Every structure is written in C-alpha cells, then in structure tokens.
Amino acid sequence: MGSVTGCIDGLEVRFDDCSLVADAGLLLAGTVMSRLGLESLIDAVVRPPESGRGSGAKARSVVASMLVGGSFIDDADRLRAGSAAAVLGFEPSAPSTVGTWLRSFTWCHVRRLDRAWELALDRAWSAGAAPAVSEMTVDLDSTVCEVHGKSKQGAAYGHTEVLGYHPVAVVRDDTGEIVHVRMRSGSSQRGHLRFVAETLARIKRLASGAKVTVRADAGFFSYDFIDALEAKGAACSITIPQNTKVKAAIEAIEDKAWKTIHYTEDGEAQAAETTITTGRRGGRGPRKLRLVLRRTRLAGAQATLWPHWRHHCFVTNRDDLDTAAADAYHRDCARVELAIRDLKANGLAHCPSGKFTANAAHLACAALAHNLARWTARLGHTQNPRRLTVAATVRRWLLEVPGRVVNHSRRHILRMPANWPWAAAFTRALGHIRSLPPLI
C-alpha cells in the first residue's frame, strides 16, 4: 500500500488475516530453541502430573511469550494468533493449559526444571553462546518481587517491608546470564549457603577448568559463608558490615596509607587496605582476612553537601589484585543489578499464580527467557560481546517485527516490512543461528 488517503476515521479494521505474525522475529529465538533441543530436553527431565503429552511445548510457550514482553499467563494467547506457530516451530499451548501445568508443579518438579535449565545452559555454552574462560566471576544478589493481596502462597513482609517473594540469583559477570536462581518466601533471608554450593557445583560441571570468584554485598556476609567458599576452592569479594571491629580497623589506618583512585568528576576517592582478625569458630583458631577500604566524598561546589569521608569495606582472598585493582573489581559487582532489573522488567514483572511452586516454576522459565535473549544476540552476532545485552533492545530490534507467511511457488516465505532499520542484523543473525548443528 503506497499511501493512505482520506480521513483516518474512514480506515476499516478487520482481524481476519491468518497469515500475519505479530512477532515474526521469534523465528530467531525459535531456531535457537530448536538447535538446543529445548523441547525434548525438558520433556525428558520434567514430568509434573499435568504435563500431558510433555512439558517441553508448554515451557517453550511460556518462554516465547516472555521474550516478547508477556508477563501474565494469558499473554501466551498472543502466540496463537495468525501464523505465529510457523515461526516458532511448534504449536503454542493455550493459557489454560499453561496455567494448569504450572499449578501442578511440586518442589521436586521445580528442581527438575532447574536441572533441565542447567542442561540447556551447557548446550548453549557448547554452541558458543558464552566464551570459554579460565577465570569466571559470578555475582550473588537477591531482590523483592512485590505482590498484592493475601492469596499468594509464601508471600510475606521482609526486611524491605514489602509484601512479596524474595528470590536469590547468581549472574555471570561477563555475559549477564543467570547461572542459578531460587524462589524464596518473602521473609526468607536464609538458604544462600546451600544455594551457592549448588551454583559452584553447577559451574564445575559446565566449566570444569574455570577458577570462580563470588562477589556479594553485605547482606550475604558471614564467616561461615567465606569458609564455605574457600572449602569449595572459590575466591570471594564480599562487602562487610561496618561493625565495631571494622570501624576500629578504619580508625587505625594512617592518612598516608590512603591512595587516591579514579572516581567520578564531582567526587574524590581513596583506597587502603589492612587486615582484620576473626574470632575462634568451630574449634579453629583466629585467622586474618584481607580488608580493602574505599572512602569517598564530594568535591567542588557540592562539597558542603557531603563534607566528610564515607567508607565502603569488603573482604577478599584475591591476592593477585593490588588495592586499587581489587576496589575496581569489587565495584563491578553493581552490574548484577542490571541483570536483575532486566529479569524483573520482562518475565518476572509479575508472579501470576497463587501457588508458591507455580511461581517458582514461572521464575525458572523467566530466567531461561532472560538467558535465551542473550544467547540469541550472541549466537547471531548482533551485539558487541563486550557489552551487556538488554532484553528490551533485542525485542525491539529483532523479535517484535510484524510479518506475513506466504506460499509462493511451493516455497514458504516470511515477508517483513521494507526499510526495517535492523533488517541486515536480523538476516545476519538468522544465518549464523541456522548454521549451528542441532545439539541433541
């Protein structure tokens, strides 16, 4: 249609074209899921009571819906409009089927879905969706998923005084992938010791030769946590609360020991380090920990608003980094917030069920969708590998592309809009992804 003439009110609207696809770019993600053998993998591992013919198609329906912005179970109906099944490579499940499937999960089935997700992560890394490294940094953090009403099983008021759930996640620093995630009740502050032990065991299975460093904020600090990491052979960089012992260590540092480090233009920062001695724990004697400190304050015209030094402290057993490098390395832990924000802005925008285990399964699907957006971008070579992938960007550029499936001379053709700004990137990505061998 070259142009539209006349009044816009005269444009007739009909929902009658079965060949149209609202999100034709799902062809990329559908091809990635097909190459990873995601459906058969989940079918073989996850079998809740209401799985019917299998869980794979239902899980793929939830994940595909999340990739194009769906956050409610009913959003899966968007995939059943027009010829969406042609670009997905499977027949999407109805929302009622998906809801029944999620509500049939027990905690055992949730853990089986975790296992299937780990196998998918293994296949994606083997296909090149993440670089093979000798050193890997993972960031541990938790968040609050707010809910409304009293009917959500497991929802409670936690330390933030917000009604909701309190999931914990581990994110790979260089790719933004979620390596492990666990749903917890709203008031839970525990379980991270076992959770991190499971994560380290998972990384050992997926990247056996990699040396792992775990970064975390003060909410996870404990001497038992440090001991558990060292027992697993992992390094750590963990913020420590400023208790009496830490404050005394700060006061004992001489002014000449503080070294200026690079900071923002409107502020100044200095770093120093010392050691603190722990008490006797578990029949063992005291030991010394490396304590790195950073103090900051405003500079210039704004200095009167923040005239005194503010301190940030963390402990680390990385002896290959000097004081300034250790501080810069620890500050990068803030990137985990970007990954969690991306997760919550997409698949985890809502916890759709009143049943705790259904929401836990929904969280696992959201994490899989979060990773699938990154695998699609990396395997398709559409973004700079040094930059973190944002799901909204992948969706806007590559996935939310309207299209029409037509049959021309016995050939099925997916026709997309002319002059699409990212048409070259889409075509290039599709070629790279289709060149991957099936990992089954």
Descriptors for this entry?
single chain, alpha+beta, 14 helices
Question: Your description of this structure?
Answer:
Helix content is about 35%, strand content about 20%. The longest helix has 24 residues, at about 355-380. The strands form three sheets. It has a nine-stranded mixed beta sheet with strand order 7-6-2-8-9-13-12-11-10, with helices on both faces. Strands 1-14-15 form a three-stranded antiparallel beta sheet. A three-stranded antiparallel beta sheet has the order 3-5-4, with no helix packed on it. The chain has helices at about 25-35, 40-45, 55-65, 85-90, 95-105, 105-125, 190-205, 225-230, 245-250, 325-330, 335-345, 355-380, 390-400, 425-435; strands at about 20, 135-140, 145, 155, 165, 170, 180, 210-215, 235-240, 260, 265-275, 290-300, 310-315, 405-410, 410-415. It has 14 helices and 15 strands. It is an alpha+beta fold and about 450 residues long.
Describe the secondary-structure layout.
Layout: E1 20-21, H1 26-36, H2 38-45, H3 56-67, H4 84-88, H5 95-103, H6 107-127, E2 135-142, E3 145-146, E4 156-157, E5 163-165, E6 168-172, E7 178-182, H7 192-206, E8 211-216, H8 223-231, E9 235-239, H9 244-251, E10 259-261, E11 267-277, E12 288-298, E13 310-316, H10 323-331, H11 335-345, H12 356-379, H13 391-399, E14 403-408, E15 411-415, H14 423-434
Parallel strand pairs: 2-8, 8-9
Antiparallel strand pairs: 1-14, 2-6, 3-5, 4-5, 6-7, 9-13, 10-11, 11-12, 12-13, 14-15
Helix pairs in contact: 1-12, 1-14, 2-3, 2-6, 3-12, 6-12
The portion of residues assigned to helices is 25-40%
Between the first and last Cα atoms, what is the distance in angstroms? 44 Å
Reported for the largest beta sheet, the result is: 9 strands, mixed
Q: Could you give the order of the helices and strands?
A: EHHHHHHEEEEEEHEHEHEEEEHHHHEEH
Q: What value does the average pLDDT take?
A: 89
Q: Assess the beta-strand content as a share of residues.
A: 15-25%
Tell me how many strands there are.
15
- Unreliable sequence segments: none
- How would you describe the shape? globular
- Give the strand order, joined by hyphens, for the main sheet: 7-6-2-8-9-13-12-11-10
